[in-house]
Design goal:
278 residues; alpha+beta; Creatine Amidinohydrolase; five-stranded antiparallel beta sheet; four-stranded antiparallel beta sheet; 15 strands; 28% helix; 24% strand; globular; binds 2-amino-4-trifluoromethylsulfanyl-butyric acid; binds cobalt (II) ion; metal ion binding; metalloaminopeptidase activity; aminopeptidase; hydrolase
Length: 278
């Protein structure tokens, strides 16, 4: 949704460095939010913390007012997949909340999402989040100069299937990742599944938001009457993880990860300019 019909925006090295600063605003904000999550906090309180964090770093919350969206983050609890609106809901022990956050700094966007357990979650919820995060990193690791866009979705899909351990997880198809830069949503779409056939060549200077949404059960989703909140039709949980990644000749650089992806990529054997950098 909300796709701009532009060509793919190719950034200079200097522009990627500016995007890194925007990415760090998002990374630090999500870190604060992750720590703040616990039984008894409302999603509206999380939103206030996010807006404070973003503005105190000199940035602007990109979601606020976007197509009329009324908050600075999305908070999607349990069966909510994405675009949950912060409000009166108080998080309870055993819930799981996905928090999606975007910021604009000096005209450049960062966009990332995490799934956070509230207190003690059951093992299935923890496993769903782990599988989704792993799939995200496999997708990020496939964001390589000289590769193709479809490598990313294939890596995400294969990872979900490989990590599922017999579970029949559903990968959401209605919402996809996206190019990002001077706008939040730009060309190209970045699906979380394989698309056979010829695909866009990945070149240095691209920046992409990779964001798998994985359901514990069926992948069918619907939107609530608030016109934003997307939920699973079967009522089972979903997890959402997202990062903004820049494609460089030295490998993928995860702009919204505090360490740029150094640790996860090292464990995966993926070369990244983040290694020894941050
Ligand atoms: N980060 C979301 C997306 O990933 C955008 C949230 S929609 C908004 O692409 F309206 F809340 F901004
Ligand atoms: Co996004």
């Amino acid at each position: 949704m909300f796709r701009r019909k532009d060509r793919v925006e190719i950034k200079t090295d200097a522009q990627i460095l500016l995007m890194r600063q925007a990415g760090l605003v998002v990374a630090r904000t999500l870190e604060v939010l992750r720590t703040a999550v616990g039984p008894g906090i409302s999603t509206r309180e999380l939103d206030a913390i996010a807006e404070d964090s973003i503005r105190s770093q000199g940035a602007i919350p990109s979601f606020l007012g976007y197509h009329g969206y009324p908050a600075s983050i999305c908070t999607s609890v349990n069966d909510e997949v994405v675009h949950g609106i912060p409000g009166d809901r108080v998080l309870r022990d055993g819930d799981q909340v996905s928090i999606d956050c975007g910021a604009i700094l000096a005209g450049w966007h960062g966009d990332a999402a995490i799934t956070v357990p509230v207190g003690e979650v059951d093992q299935a919820a923890g496993e769903l989040s782990r599988v989704t995060q792993e799939a995200l990193w496999r997708g990020l690791g496939a964001a390589r100069v000289g590769g193709a866009l479809s490598d990313i979705g294939r890596a995400v899909e294969n990872s979900v299937r490989a990590e599922a351990g017999g579970a029949a997880y559903g990968i959401v198809e209605e919402y996809v990742g996206h190019g990002i830069g001077t706008s939040m949503h730009m060309e190209p779409n970045v699906p979380n599944y394989d698309i056979p056939g010829k695909s866009l060549a990945l070149v240095a200077g691209m920046a992409l938001a990779v964001e798998p949404m994985v359901c514990a059960g069926d992948r069918t989703v619907r939107t609530l009457a608030d016109d934003w909140t997307v939920v699973t039709v079967d009522g089972r949980r979903a997890s959402h993880w997202e990062h903004t990644v820049a494609l460089t000749t030295a490998g993928p650089w995860v702009l919204t990860a505090l360490d740029g992806g150094a640790e996860r990529f090292a464990a995966m054997g993926v070369h990244s300019p983040a290694a020894g950098r941050d």
